[in-house]
């Protein structure tokens, strides 16, 4: 194989650059990941299992799954609606809506958590009213769900908007000219056209929903067995010097990340054309 | 079915796409909407289909106002420029789509749908490709699938947006003839949009020439070519030399030289004259006509193409079968127009 014309750098320079990149990856990604598993199994399999089956850990996992199973489906609905509205219709303040969708990415999660405390907390705007009706949002599951939804909102919409923009409106117009109703057009034409992009967005959304720390930390109240999600539970264990249990639960989150990454890579490899530009 | 548009006006923001446009397609007629891009032809077609709604004016099918009816209730077959085939469905599923989305009580049985799909696929000569996906077909085949899909629901009218725009020249010509046959067999009323004048003249019963959101002329291909109603139509249809002229007493003067045989007569004053390349005779210098200097002569078989410059420096391109022999660039000649179309400037 001959060297391409564009790589004119000397050999040592190329190896230096490759080495730097590799070193960075090992130091910042591979090593920490290995450390998580190493620490988790440091005291053997039994200690690892004990850390995971402990009641508070089980409660944290259940809560994380519950939050994700509410936040992700709702964000699928919101994300598709937003992408649909932005790409298939013309209206004023469209760019404002696009900016708003990106807001959760640009705001620190801690700030978004605090905003919810400000609105729904006891001293907040709606606090007295909520208390009068005996509804608790902050330091309870609804607050955690709200904060998670806010932080993960952009994932589905951001994935779909460029895809649907690229696909244009012609397919939908063809469907309605053939007599299809709105729902038929959506389920039989739009949804199949975006299915892989949607799955991709949902994966990322789910990974973030389960791993979210900052915003959830602010609104949760850290009540063991009640309002602790997995990331919060890990932090508490770590702060109590219970390293084995902390890393044991962390392996589950790391495992989730690895599975997400694997499926994401598979999708990108298998459906590359349908994730981005779908040629006619 | 008669399709008519009445005083259609459509704006996109500050841009006027259609400005008081009216036309009528007779039952069984094949109508071409011809014009440059931005002339409003596609917008008019989409308004007929109900994919756009006019700011004012109405669309009528057999005299019934359908302006507020949504697309799905108009029963129009629409063929899109880029076909808009559903990429995740097979060819057969694409063609049958319009039947499978019908309300349950009107929907044919799966066996009936499948029979209808087979019938349409053989009509468009794709009977063997029902199991393929659109991405596995050539452009011409996709176009025929799109047509079969539009015809599956027995549309009142067939609307085609630049149906051959994305195809190469050879395929385009074959498909054109074939589309004409389908139109006749199915006894459809069809309207198609094109910017290709050759296509419009070849295919349509009548041609609607549009420019800047207004209709310049509606007439048979022969009439729009031979009796263009405006300078724009004359310029847009076929090559023509465009020369400044003055009109006095019903005759055209180019560079002060009087030309006979002027049609159509325009009012006196400054004007613009159109003369097609083959409508000149070549005569020796000093004869009555337009004096020119030969700049270049190219022979292609029996025909010769001459580029000449008038006294005012305007370029005239003309073709002739028997040019005088021994002509060299720089030679002085007279061009005698056999036919001039003059319009007031």
From TrEMBL, chain A:
Subcellular location: Cell inner membrane
Bilayer topology annotation: Multi-pass membrane protein
Quaternary structure (record): The complex is composed of two ATP-binding proteins (CysA), two transmembrane proteins (CysT and CysW) and a solute-binding protein (CysP).
InterPro entries: CysW_permease, MetI-like, MetI-like_sf, Sulph_transpt2
Protein's recorded name: Sulfate transport system permease protein CysW
NCBIfam families: 3a0106s02 (TIGR00969), permease_CysW (TIGR02140)
Gene3D superfamilies recorded: MetI-like (1.10.3720.10)
Lineage: Bacteria, Pseudomonadati, Pseudomonadota, Alphaproteobacteria, Sphingomonadales
Origin superkingdom: Bacteria
Residue ranges of domain ABC transmembrane type-1 in the record: 61-262
Keywords assigned: Cell inner membrane, Cell membrane, Membrane, Sulfate transport, Transmembrane, Transmembrane helix, Transport
Main location as per UniProt: membrane
Short name of any one Pfam family annotated for the protein: BPD_transp_1
Biological role: Part of the ABC transporter complex CysAWTP (TC 3.A.1.6.1) involved in sulfate/thiosulfate import. Probably responsible for the translocation of the substrate across the membrane.
From TrEMBL, chain B:
UniProt source species: Glacieibacterium arshaanense
Ranges annotated as spanning the membrane: none
SMART domains: AAA
Keywords assigned by UniProt, alphabetized: ATP-binding, Nucleotide-binding, Sulfate transport, Translocase, Transport
SUPFAM superfamilies in UniProt: P-loop containing nucleoside triphosphate hydrolases
Lineage top rank: taxon: Bacteria
CDD domains, per database record: ABC_CysA_sulfate_importer
Molecular-function GO terms, alphabetical: ABC-type sulfate transporter activity; ATP binding; ATP hydrolysis activity
Stored PANTHER family: SPERMIDINE/PUTRESCINE IMPORT ATP-BINDING PROTEIN POTA, SPERMIDINE_PUTRESCINE IMPORT ATP-BINDING PROTEIN POTA
Stated name of the protein: Sulfate/molybdate ABC transporter ATP-binding protein
InterPro entries noted in UniProt: AAA+_ATPase, ABC_SmlMolc_Importer, ABC_transporter-like_ATP-bd, ABC_transporter-like_CS, P-loop_NTPase, Sulph_transpt1
Start and end residues of each ABC transporter domain: 3-237
NCBIfam families given in the database record: 3a0106s01
GO CC term, one of those recorded: ATP-binding cassette (ABC) transporter complex
